[in-house]
Amino acid sequence: MTYKFLEPLTLANGVTLKNRIVFPPTTLRSSYASGEVADAELDYYALRAGGPGMVIVEMAYVSKAGRSYLGQIGIDDDDKIPGLKRLADVIRHKGSVPVLQLSFGGRIAHPEALPHEDLVAPSAVAGHHLTDVPRELSNAEIEQSIVDFGEATRRAIAAGFAGVELHGANMYLLQQFFSADSNRRTDEWGGDVNGRMRYGLAVLDQVVKVRDAYADDKFIIGFRQSPEEPMTPGIRHQDALLMAQEIAKRPISYFHISLKDAFQPPFMDKADNEPLYAKYKAVLGAIPLIGVGLLRTPEQVEALVQAGVDAAAVGRELIIDPNWVQKVENGDEKGIRYAISPSDFELLKIPSPLIPWLSTRFHNGFVMSTDASYDPQNPWAYYKA
Which one, of 282, 279, 226, 225, lies nearest residue 255 by Cα? Predict the structure, then answer.
């Protein structure tokens, strides 16, 4: 079968990916305590690069105050450039385009990751599932964090990454500023939807400025966004689309929406059955859209791409089967593995800190062959259980 997702994709800045499969950020928690890249991470990415057109490395903290968890990759000082270069090189040498996600934890950061820093956020409001109340960022700290994202971009360029992705999703700081739940400010960084999107746009503008100073327009800039939040007040997709329109006015290369299911409609508006990807395609114009969420089979990925989504991010499945793309290319779809044996964790170069998360928080879509409800003769029954 001929699949459209195996065709090249040209990003908005003119860079062409060899296919429309993206390996999305998968948090390993496996860097050294200093935030430097560890060998386990190099091995993990080396095994999965080569098939996807683009590999987005998990979020790197742009400053010590922006750390989110223990074992996170850092890009907060120049000493980390050599290790990051090793990581970018191994991905590129395997045949994929390497992009590094940049982040700041904010109020959802784990306190143990910030032994010498305060837990900070746009406002002194705890997360909906947390008890620690963050300290409100001062205007000077906000301005410094914007500079930090720019400096992180400079280091990513020096390390040889082909681009960066700004993490404006999954409750991290850029999303916190945009949310009426976490941002109760009344100054220029808060207020109405236009005020709340100002921080994310300022970060993006700074990244573009640094890109223009240290690289050319072939350096990729992506933005990842969560369309909704489950709390009230919180982000609703109508406001998220307004921000996406503003982002699309900037010279970004692609837009990446973070969803549990790539085909889902808004979960906070049960009367609306239109898929979120369709809403984003309507406002992004020529900016390519990357969709993500429980994509496992070639048929699912092809359906998403045929529906107009420009690229598909395949995460859990590429952890289970790093050669997923190669098997599709070779007509060996019967050889695709949809379940993982715990005996193969070492073979698949899965770092030990990732294993508990795969069997708990990310269990949906990550099938263990040892699970009593898994039937290798009927694997889809497991997913529907």
Answer: 225
